[in-house]
Amino acid sequence: MKIKSIVLVSITLISISLLSLAFYSCGKGSGDVIKIGEFASLTGSEATFGINSDNGMKLAVEEINNAGGVLGKKIELITEDNQGKPNETQTVVQKLINRDKVVAILGEVASSRSKAAAPLCQQNKIPMITPASTNPEVTAIGDYIFRVCFIDPFQATVMSKFALNSMKVKKVALLIDQRNAYSTGLAESFKKTFVEMGGEIIEEQKYSAGDKDFKAQLTAIKYKNPEAVFIPGYYTDVGLIAIQAREIGINVPLFGGDGWESEKLTEGKAKDALEGCFFSTHLSMDDPSPLVQDFIKKYRTKFNKEPDAMSVLGYDAAMLMFDAIKRAGSTDGDKIRQELAKTKDFKSVSGNITINEQRNAVKPAVVLEIKDGKFKYKETIAP
Ligand code: PHE
Asked: Domain 152-281+367-381, what architecture?
């Protein structure tokens, strides 16, 4: 009788401890892995943004895990495709936080989608780093939201200076993607700085991402005889805009921001239409620094293709998150957030990262020229 109850009690105790162990390992950042969530546009019209930033993050995870992981645990990256849609972004980010119990989140490239995710991360006290969203409002959402890139008011200053001093143009027309937060924000900043520096905006026209006919807007622009046209949009529309601009006889240079950067920008007829045009972005792949050149080699070996700015920023965002978790000595959201905020001179492929009071990275920008369908380094403009 006595022996029987001892056996029963022990079996119960063992089952309870096994069960709680099982529960514990499913919990937040516990067990033998640290779960980090990622949301990206792996499909949809801007898929190069998502695929390339995702590749960069995967490379970072592989390297950190080969080097022993973080706090003695392996990193597990849980990636969700938001199909390039803000609504889908909210669904997948909820899932990452509530179901997967990730301790931190990486994403996105497009500002509109980072803006959709940030309030959820903020409410749930999950630190989030966007690799490439440049709209100022993204990190303004709250103290859990960070970025490893510069912001659009700076990018606007860079292109205003470049237009006035290097392109030597003063009369500029604007063509804006009216429902894209990145495009409208960058346009506003550009108008302000360009005029302050002595330039003139002589025409402003709007389009919507995915439009196929820009002739009406381009005709209105042509009529005003600008010396250049600033198009703060995404590569997905810029190629077609350039082709149609040339067709109706606009022969002046077109220029834009980082949203132009994609291997798809100069496909087909867009290659000739964009010859001699310029855009600002985060770094140049021609940069001879060993950090950049080693990254390019590693990336080519793993993915059998060329990296772009998104690949590098994805890698840098992931590496900064790992470093902050190490420094925090914990996967607690508040502790990670505090360490992210303290980041100073963190060595990164896209340039050293210092996080300022607004949780933005203060970094230089580069201007690239399109030559023969390739992106050639023109100049670096410091903050
Ligand atoms: N900066 C853009 C945005 O905020 C995204 C982007 C970054 C696009 C880098 C291309 C290259 O929407």
From this structure: 3-Layer(aba) Sandwich (3.40)
